[in-house]
Amino acid sequence: MSADTSSTSTDIPTRGADAGDRVDGRTPEQLREVRITRGWLDHAEGSALIEFGRTRVLCAATFTEGVPRWKKGSGSGWVTAEYAMLPRSTNTRSSRESVKGKIGGRTHEISRLIGRSLRAVIDLEALGENTIQLDCDVLQADGGTRTAAITGAYVALADAVAWGKKHTAIPSARTVLTDTVSAVSVGIIDGRPLLDLEYREDVTAGTDMNVVVTGGGDFVEVQGTAEGAPFDRHELNALLDLAVRGCGELAEIQRSVLEQEPGRPAEGR
Fold first, then answer.
1. Could you tell me which residues come within 8 angstroms of residue 174 by beta carbon, excluding any fewer than 6 positions away?
2. 94 has which bridge partners?
3. Burial degree of 193 (CB within 10 A; 0-12, 13-18, 19+)
4. Cβ contacts of 190 within 8 Å, gap of 6 or more
5. Which label site among 76, 124, 146, 240 has the fewest CB atoms less than 10 Å from its CB?
6. How far apart are CA 24 and CA 11, in angstroms?
């Protein structure tokens, strides 16, 4: 099956006028440069290449009729995800888990996180007995790979749903997606809450958190860990406020990309 979409992208440049003192010149509440290229693959029912700064993740959605055996006859569909990192996505080569014959715990954890995040905004009953599989492959890692994967996978999912309405028995007027979903990292470095940590910040953060938020502002998941001194409620609130703000910006980027006419690139902001 091949996707019936053309490549479109939105590029959100770092705002030089608001330059701050972080390692890459951003202010505490500033996202990295975000770029989403929709329809990056020719054959997938939905796809998106997402870039959070130097982090790049390719997300592909495969739409198939039918569901896993345990869901047959339920009238309900299924959405699941797999996450992987290419051997040279980091500064040293890592072995392919498929060659090692064992999938690592981190890979399982992130795959499940992506699946949960997407299922939070899709009506599986409305999807019918169909399955959408998301494959998220990290091409280059510079912090925030799981959050970029969730944000890009939503765009791929939306196009796969649109493909399903066009090519299967799903009625075109049926509401399958109930909201958008995106994710971002936040952390505390030298006592300051920061949004969207790149790798150099991530490794020095006293507190590191990944937050998944719907377009409506509801939380899907909050993963937070103190790497030294514990964080208090005031710091937690500050981090969550940053994350909600960041995910709001990401939701607007997703909407902008998905609203573009086929073959017409989105304008940067």
1. 126, 165
2. none
3. buried
4. none
5. 76
6. 18
Structure-token pair, residue 127: 């999807």
Task: Name residue 12's amino acid.
Answer: I
Contacts of 96 (CB under 8 A, 6+ apart): 87
For the record, the structure tokens of 27 come out as 């202010």
**Which SS3 state, helix, strand or coil, does residue 160 take?**
helix
Whose structure tokens read 């993740």?
57
Cα separation values, 47 from 51, 128, 194, 228, 250, Å: 13, 21, 30, 39, 17
Q: What tokens does 172 get? A: 């075109």
Of 259, 79, 75, 260, give the one whose Cα is nearest residue 170.
75
pTM for the whole structure: 0.91
